[in-house]
Amino acid sequence: MILLCFCGVALSETDILLDGLRNAYFSISGRAGYGAGGWFGYGKNRYAVCDSFARTKEPTNWLRTDFIDVKDAIRVDIIVNYTVRKCRPGQTYCKEYFKLYGYQTLKTSPRPNPLVTPFDFLAKAKPTNVPDRPTRPGDFNLLKVSIKIKRKGLYLAFYDQGSCLSLLSVRVSFNYCPEIQKRLVTFARTASPFSDSSADQVEGRCTDQQSRNTTVLTATCTSQGNWMINDNVRCLCQPGYRYSSYPKPRCC
């Protein structure tokens, strides 16, 4: 009979729910002020707005994604890559930021209209790179937001009130601890918790019918998607069986 154990950390993995703007449908809605044009698509799946010259009233431009299936995520991480132009004197309603909103739901339809349906405020972009000239590739800024998931679906909405900006990419993802099988012990794929302080113990199981455990098989999945497994987590081959690693770990 051979005593088996393992400890340490398993490498994390990330599930990409939305990568760039190429695999998402974006809907445009809003009321622009005089002299303003609102959101528009350009290039390869990019969106922009430049209503910094609005004269009579503050623009209210919305750009909304389609339904994002968050799968089994507990927390999703959002990264927005964007550029923004500096406001100039005389631009009454000009802004150098935008606001990000979210709407969680169980339904794929009807698609919510942010002009009618209240979206939750998530973050206000605070760019550090704001050039007073046409933007260049190196002028990008990043907005990073993490939110707790309460429903199985998510819509994001970008709210502009008079900026001159471009959305270059939007990435939505979540971390998870991948299924791990090592020497007769298995822990199933587990979505990462919102934070390490809210992490729960995950129960494992012996993978071979001829094996048994003498201790509780539990591990912790961290918010970064790493398995934390104590070295006393182990399975043993039952009497009359021996451990073999070929062609796969088993008791024979």
UniProtKB/TrEMBL annotation:
One of its GO terms (molecular function) is ATP binding. It comes from Actinia tenebrosa (Australian red waratah sea anemone). SMART domains: EPH_lbd (SM00615). Keywords: ATP-binding, Membrane, Nucleotide-binding, Receptor. This is Ephrin type-B receptor 1-A-like. The gene is LOC116301878. Residues 1-182 form the Eph LBD domain. It is found in: Membrane. InterPro entries: Ephrin_rcpt_lig-bd_dom, Ephrin_rcpt_TKs, Galactose-bd-like_sf. The keyword Nucleus does not apply.
